[in-house]
Amino acid sequence: MATEEGTESASPLDEVMEDIRRELVRRVAAADRESNRDIYDALENE
Q1: Model pTM greater than 0.70?
Q2: What is the number of other CB atoms lying within 10 angstroms of the CB of residue 34?
């Protein structure tokens, strides 16, 4: 697994897992925005 300093290279599995994590975060954020659309719209219009 890659460290913050980048001294170790990520394995192919680590790269795939990071892609999956990124996609899950994107989907959860999109679902949250959609389910709370009225709140986001109200905040945007303040």
Answers
A1: no
A2: 9
Q: Closest by alpha carbon to 33, among 41, 24, 22?
A: 41
Q: Could you tell me the residue ranges of all domains in the chain? A: 11-45
Measured CA to CA in angstroms, residue 5 lies from 9, 11, 12, 35, 40 at distances of 10, 16, 18, 38, 37
DSSP character at residue 7: -
pLDDT tens for the chain, 46 residues long, are 455 555 578 899 999 999 999 999 999 999 998 999 998 888 888 7
Determine the 3-state secondary structure of 46 from DSSP. coil
CA distance 19 to 36: 26
